[in-house]
Design a protein that fits this description.
Layout lengths: L1 H11 L2 H13 L4 H15 L16 H5 L23 E8 L4 E5 L2 E4 H5 L2 H7 L3 E6 L7 E3 L4 E9 L8 H6 L3 H4 L2 E8 L2 E8 L7 E3 L13 E11 L4 E5 L4 E6 L4 E3 L8 E2 L6 E3 L2
Antiparallel strand pairs: 1-4, 1-14, 2-3, 4-12, 5-11, 6-7, 6-10, 7-8, 8-12, 9-11, 13-15
Function: Catalyzes the formation of phosphatidylethanolamine (PtdEtn) from phosphatidylserine (PtdSer).
GO cellular component, one term: plasma membrane
InterPro entries: PS_Dcarbxylase, PSD-B, PSD_type1_pro
C-alpha cells in the first residue's frame, strides 16, 4: 500500500524539470555558506563516511562538488588479476544472476529484456545468457563509476528516458524501470570478452557525466551513439564517469565468460575494487 501511494505521488511529479532544478541548485556559485550547511546536514542524515572524502568538508565549494567527491588515494585497493572483474562502484547488490533468454531480474516477480536495456537488439544477442549484476548507489555512497576490468572503451550509447527513482518501491513497482529510465551504456573489450557498463539515471540525478568523453546527460540532448575508430584504453579501476546524485550501475558480461561470486546476493554491500567474480572462459 505504501509503495502504491509513493509511486502515485512520484508519477505526478515533473521528474525531469525537478531533477534539472535540483542539479542546478547543488552547483550554484556564491552560496558557500548554504552549501556547507546542506553538506553537513546531508552527511548527518545519511551517515556519510566523511573521513573517506579526498578533501575536508569545508574545501568543497558546493553541494554538487561534495556529492561527486573523490576518495582519498589508495582507499579502495583494486583486486588483482586481468580476468578478475571488480565492482565499479560503492553500493549494494540489487540483483545478480544470469540473463537467461535475454531477461534480467528487476525484483521478485518482475523482469525486463536486455534489448530494451541496451537499446540494441544485436548487442543484446551478444550478452544473452551472460552474467549480470545490478548495483544500487544510495545517497551516502561515493558516486564515481570505474572500469571493472582492464580493456578498451569501444564507445557508448546515450538513451534519454524517464527519471523514476531507483529505490525499492520503484524497483518493485515500475515495470522495466531500468529500461525506461535515462541511461548511458558503455561498451568495453576486456580479457573476458565484451562488457557493458550501464549507468542508469534517477529522480534528482541532475546529470550523468562521462570522464572519457564530453557527454553530460539530462540536458535536453537527443539520443546518441558513439563508436570510436581507435578504442580508448582504460585500466581496471580507472574512472569512467560519475552520477551527480545517486542511482544504479548494471554490469553485463558475455555468456560463458564470467561466474559471479556467490556473495552477490540482494542487499549485500560492495565496494569499488572488490572482486565480484572470476573468468570461466
Amino acid at each position: 500500500m505504501r509503495d502504491a501511494a509513493f509511486l502515485a505521488f512520484v508519477k505526478l511529479l515533473p521528474k525531469k524539470p525537478l531533477s534539472r532544478l535540483v542539479g542546478t541548485a547543488t552547483r550554484v556559485d556564491g552560496l558557500q555558506g548554504a552549501h556547507q550547511a546542506a553538506i553537513r546536514t546531508f552527511c548527518k542524515q545519511y551517515d556519510v563516511a566523511v573521513d573517506e572524502a579526498e578533501l575536508p568538508l569545508e574545501a568543497y565549494p558546493s553541494f554538487g562538488a561534495f556529492f561527486t567527491r573523490k576518495l582519498k588515494p589508495g582507499l579502495r585497493p583494486i583486486a588483482p588479476g586481468e580476468r578478475v572483474p571488480v565492482s565499479p562502484v560503492d553500493g549494494a547488490v540489487s540483483q545478480a544472476g544470469v540473463a537467461e533468454a535475454g531477461r534480467l531480474i528487476q525484483a521478485k516477480g518482475r523482469d525486463y529484456s536486455l534489448a530494451a536495456l541496451l537499446g540494441d537488439s544485436e548487442e543484446a544477442e551478444r550478452f544473452a545468457g551472460g552474467a549480470y549484476a545490478t548495483l544500487y548507489l544510495s545517497p551516502r555512497d561515493y558516486h564515481r563509476i570505474h572500469a571493472p576490468l582492464d580493456g578498451t572503451i569501444l564507445g557508448y550509447r546515450y538513451v534519454p528516458g524517464h527519471l523514476w527513482p531507483v529505490n525499492r518501491p520503484s524497483v518493485r513497482g515500475v515495470p522495466e524501470l531500468f529500461a525506461v529510465n535515462e541511461r548511458v551504456i558503455i561498451w568495453m573489450d576486456t580479457p573476458v570478452g565484451r562488457v557493458a557498463v550501464i549507468a542508469v539515471g534517477a529522480t534528482c540525478v541532475g546529470r550523468i557525466r562521462l570522464s572519457f568523453d564530453d557527454l553530460v546527460t539530462n540536458s535536453g540532448g537527443p539520443p546518441s551513439r558513439v563508436r570510436y575508430d581507435l578504442p580508448r584504453p582504460i585500466a581496471k579501476g580507472a574512472e569512467l564517469g560519475m552520477f551527480e546524485m545517486g542511482s544504479t550501475v548494471i554490469l553485463v558480461f558475455e555468456p560463458g565468460k564470467v561466474a559471479l561470486d556467490s556473495s552477490l546476493v540482494p542487499d549485500a554491500p560492495v565496494r569499488l575494487g572488490q572482486a565480484i567474480g572470476h573468468s570461466i572462459g
